[in-house]
Amino acid sequence: MNRLQALYATTIGKKFIAAITGIILFGFILGHVAGNLKVFTGATADGIPHIDEYAHFLKIAGAPLVPEQFVLWSARSVLLISLILHMTVVIQLALISAEARPISYVKSKKRAASLPALWMMFSGLLILGFVIFHILHFTTGTIVIGEFNHGFVYNNLESSFSNPLVGIGYILVMLVLGFHLNHGIWSLFQTLGLDNPDRNKFLRLTATGLTIAIIAGFISIPLAFMTGAMPDPVSYPHELLTGHR
Ligand code: HEM
């Protein structure tokens, strides 16, 4: 067994993997909400919405040093591996801790996971389902609601969120994500050994403050389109963005 396998076999190793992968996934969420907020910053002089420009930049980042989309696909691979590892170890950890709970043997023969653990499983699965739907919706355009055109992110957002049912659905999932993140960040602080009665109140407030800022950022987007607060999309030739004619 090599060192990595040995680490993986221990509870502390699994906690470590959950923390590292959690930080990576959290980093993505932070970057994603920041990028999405470009929807509010307007357009270039040519009329290209900043968010379309940003999405295009993500595709070509690193070129010509590396082929176009190389950085994008590398990041996607790291995220996918992190997601799979994160889910695997947190489920294993929840099972280990359920097995170790003496109370479940006194009251019943059944193994019982704690309520927060059950909530994290349930909300985590819901978020996973959302992410699959979301990629098919906004990235691949497989699930079309309204209109979808690759690269025209602003138009796609406007077209989907002018349907109030889609907007409300997204907002509800963001609220579930909020509770998941709040508990996840707090657990991360504990795994990192930061918790201590003197500063737990501060750490809990930090987790909640971060969560509220992120979720408010996400929710503001469907909300802004649903309420008609956003300017109408302007059509522009896609060659303007890509430079390919
Ligand atoms: C209201 C909230 C959200 C909005 C408006 C939104 C918007 C978008 C848009 C427009 C894209 C496609 C970008 C492009 O074509 O370049 C995208 C991609 C994506 N979003 Fe979101 N998003 C939201 C929330 C989330 C959340 C909460 C997660 C994760 C938990 C998430 C995960 C992803 C992923 C994984 C992709 C695919 C990225 C890629 O591989 O290119 N999104 N999102």
Count of separate structural domains? 1
**End-to-end distance, in Å?**
55 Å
User: Quaternary state, please?
Assistant: single chain
- Please tally the helical runs, counting DSSP H or I stretches of 4 or more residues: 10
Low-confidence region ranges? none
- Major beta-sheet overview: none
Helix content, binned percent: over 70%
The secondary structure category is mainly alpha
Bound molecules: protoporphyrin IX containing FE
CATH second-level architecture? Up-down Bundle
CATH topology annotation: 3 helical TM bundles of succinate and fumarate reductases
Word description of this protein:
With about 240 residues, this protein is mostly helical. The protein has one domain: 3 helical TM bundles of succinate and fumarate reductases (Up-down Bundle), CATH 1.20.1300. The protein contains 10 helices and no strands. It has helices at about 5-10, 10-35, 50-60, 70-100, 105, 115-140, 155-160, 165-190, 200-225, 240. Helix 2 (about 10-35) runs antiparallel to helix 8, helix 6 (about 115-140) crosses helix 8 (about 165-190) and helix 8 runs antiparallel to helix 9 (about 200-225). The model has no long low-confidence stretch (mean pLDDT about 90). The chain binds protoporphyrin IX containing FE (HEM). Protoporphyrin IX containing FE binds next to helix 2, helix 6, helix 7, helix 8 and helix 9.
Compact description:
The protein has 245 residues and is mainly α.
